[in-house]
């Protein structure tokens, strides 16, 4: 491909879900969301699908190589949920607090979104993200 923008050549091929180039930025973004949501170590591990200390992992150069496609998918769901909440709510405290509040919507059956997401099932994370992206009835 001959182009006036050589950097565009690297954009021809999209990232694969197991591309190691996604691991470090994905974990850094997840770490920021974990702080915003005040996630415990066990909640972080449940969301990522394996016991992991994200902060310690990021502190060690080259240590993110073991991050696989499933963990990247989980991170993607968390980031999508975070983005959707900050789109739906007018202020940060509401957006970040919603994740822990019990929810009356059928999708949650009175539980919080976080408890559903921490079940370990990717389908539950997808359900929360879809609910929010569809502008579901978000209890304020």
> What's the multimeric state?
single chain
Secondary structure class reads mainly alpha
Q: What series of H and E elements makes up the topology?
A: HHHHHHH
Poorly predicted parts:
5-15
Question: What proportion strand?
Answer: under 5%
DSSP summary: helix tally: 7
Describe this entry's structure for a reader.
Residues 5-15 have low confidence and may be disordered. This protein has one domain (19-133). With 140 residues, it is an all-alpha fold. Helices cover 51% and strands 0% of the residues. The relative contact order is 0.13.
Sum up the structure in keywords.
140 residues; mainly alpha; 7 helices; 51% helix; 0% strand
What's this, in brief?
By secondary structure, this protein is mainly alpha-helical. The protein is 51% helix and 0% strand.
């Amino acid at each position: 491909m001959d182009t006036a923008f050589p950097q565009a050549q690297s954009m021809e091929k999209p990232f694969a879900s197991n591309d190691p180039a996604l691991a470090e930025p994905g974990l850094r973004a997840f770490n920021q969301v974990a702080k915003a949501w005040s996630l415990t170590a066990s909640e972080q591990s449940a969301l990522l699908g394996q016991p992991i200390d994200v902060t310690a992992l990021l502190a060690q150069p080259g240590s993110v190589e073991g991050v696989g496609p499933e963990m990247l998918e989980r991170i993607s769901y968390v980031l999508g949920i975070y983005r959707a909440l900050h789109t739906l709510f007018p202020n940060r405290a509401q957006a970040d607090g919603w994740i822990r509040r019990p929810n009356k919507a059928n999708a949650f059956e009175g539980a919080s979104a976080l408890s559903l997401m921490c079940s370990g099932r990717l389908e539950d994370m997808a359900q929360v993200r879809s609910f929010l992206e569809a502008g579901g009835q978000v209890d304020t």
